[in-house]
Amino acid sequence: MQEEIVMTPWRDFASEPMEALVPNLMKWDFILVCDKHRPGSKKDAKRKKFLEELKNKGFILKKIVGAKLFYGIHAPDELFQKYHLLTWKNSPVKEDVPITTRIYIVNFILQNTKISPTETFRKLIKEKVFEAAFPLHEQDERRESLKMCWVPCREELYRQQIEKLRSYFGEKVALYFAWLGWYTYMLLFAAVPGLFLLLHGIIHFNSSQVSKEICEANTTVMCPLCDQKCPFWQLSDTCTYAKITHLFDNEGTVLFAMFMAVWATVFLELWKRKRAEVVSGWELYRWDEDEEEMALQLINNPKYVLKEYQHSYIRSTIVLLLVLLMITVLIGIAHALVIYRVVATVFFTQTDSQFLRDRANTVAVITGAVLHYITIVVMTKVNRRVALFLCELEEPRTFSERENIFTVKIFTFQFFTYFSSLIYIAFFLGRINGHPGKYVRIGGKWRLEECHPSGCITDLVIQMAIIMILKQTLSNFVEYLTPWVTLKIRKLRASPESKGNGCTENGPQDSCKEQWLRNYQLNEVNIFSLFDEFLEMMIQYSFTTIFVAAFPLAPLLAFFNNIIEIPLDAYKMMRLQRCMVPRKANDIGIWLQVLEAIGILAVIGNGLVIAITSDFIPMQVYKYTYSPCMLQNRTNVDCLTGYINNSLSVFRIQDFEWQTRLPEKQPDFMSEITECRYRDYRNSDDYSYSIQFWHVFAARLAFLILFEHVALCIKLIAAWYVPDVSLKVKNKHLEEKYKNLQKLLRLMDVSTEV
């Protein structure tokens, strides 16, 4: 391998050797890598022109020739002096510039250096003029301290090595891990009540009056669940299913849903306090991102013309229509999953396997959930491309604005990708399928699936459990195994020349070669690396809060996942991928608004789950209106006695669509019965809705309004009760203002005396 030092043309040095003028231990801010383009080619000309632009800005370049061309970039100190002068309000002038600030500024200049009005560094990367650009993982005490203490120290989750993370990865990464640690810590307080709710269901597994009635209903004949090869069946066949339903749908569900609404608010308010405390110590509490970006633009180009805010109603309308079109596509995919479940149920009931025939509906639900997860994996990639395209259509003014626009769109698409199917199961399954003799059919052939006699909440639990478990196992497995395997393969395939060709770290001229090569062999860090981590946690937070009334184990699963996630993220960032470009930040940005939106959706979602999906409201209506306790004034029986029989309507078998819809293999059994039961509140004569249906409907609506208003009021009270900023931080900034005013007053007095 060969190397050469390229000095900037504005430095007028003597003709002594170049190496003598550059410190042997100089730290290089960035490394550029490219192929050995044919001399005189278009790519070679663009590479030389770009490097010339950097030299004109005062950069020192070091070139190493091996299997690839490596260029080390060292920025002049004048850049950072200008930066301190322009941002002195937010960052006091210091003699030593933090390495994270250096990399942050150099990366900005690289991204905004143009060789023509339309050819930026980003475009040169796409055209393969340059293959890669990355800062180095420094072999110093900061990295070794992080490698040794970030995870192994096992500090409390909300007291990670935040300061060390900040000094190595910058404020944005440090705030992400501060937020993730705090979120995981708070999940523990949500997981414990959820676990107790499940234990309450286990303790009463065999004592629930509703479960007992289902298990003892061996004379209750139910209508067939499908058209072909589905026999009449006894309600007692679903005894186990009913007991499992009671694990998640019991008396404590409402209280737990209310608790989670308060928990989400308290979590956010306490995070705001912690964030204020952390960034206050970093002197970034009043940091302005727009002002920072303008300062960097002026440092890069003193002739920079301010790009003002613009808004186009035509462009916004086009983007809105495209977003709605994409949401429609995602909802259509959810409908396709519904059709799959319907067809799969019919298919499994017609198989030769007795096991599949008896459990056709459950198997369809499970396979549908797995298929849903596969669509999530595929549509995640599609959603990203569409969101990027829409983001470009809006022509954002700055990088931060681009990031916010992209975040809102990708989260919206991902939300519908993950939750469209769950919304159908929770609020539509079994409610739009009609009734025996008048079923709603897809294409006039397949009838929509029904809720289980024990309720639809178990279907929702199965769907959520499978998606969460697959997402938190397979996805994490792929997320961390893929870069590990890729890195190993890349090192095995590396040519002798690319492995260093005998370079050592002993000589002054060879000290950087092996380090550059080792960093180049690591996995690439794309601009969305930290974004992907945030998005993953936001989806998890949505699962943990929006449908938690149906699946109280969600916080516990999320807690255990995050306990593993933090060390895996640490290992990936420190050992498997190139160093991330540090970014300044004083908050988690647009993600805070996403969290607040999820908190509101959680109140609405849990209210709907309890009011519509759960059997809580029908049970309460029966208990206080139609039960023996009310009608017969009996106190010696459980007030839910007779609930199951009361919740099932009667259908006369003679009203079936005999010619085309009659279930097969029924002749002997049919001669013995004249009617079957199905889950609904309908009159037995004309199958219209009974008065009890409207009582239950009114109670559901009243509960939903009451629950959401009470929960939102509690959220507002909790938000008011817990200040966003602690008194300690407020008093600190108040004292700083007071001291600054005193200094100004003394200066005014001195100038007056003079």
Q: What's the structural blueprint in terms of helices and strands?
A:
Blueprint: E1 2-6, E2 30-34, H1 42-56, E3 60-65, E4 69-74, H2 77-86, H3 99-111, E5 114-116, E6 119-120, H4 121-126, E7 132-134, H5 141-149, H6 162-169, H7 171-203, H8 209-216, E8 221-222, E9 233-234, H9 239-248, H10 253-281, H11 289-300, H12 313-349, H13 354-358, H14 360-394, H15 399-427, E10 434-435, E11 438-439, E12 441-442, E13 446-447, H16 457-493, H17 513-521, H18 529-545, H19 554-576, H20 590-613, H21 616-626, H22 628-631, H23 643-647, E14 648-652, H24 658-661, H25 667-670, E15 675-679, H26 691-721, H27 727-753
Antiparallel strand pairs: 1-3, 2-4, 2-7, 3-4, 5-6, 8-9, 10-11, 12-13, 14-15
Helix pairs in contact: 2-11, 5-6, 6-7, 7-9, 7-10, 7-19, 8-9, 10-20, 10-26, 12-14, 12-15, 14-15, 14-16, 15-18, 15-20, 16-19, 18-20, 20-26
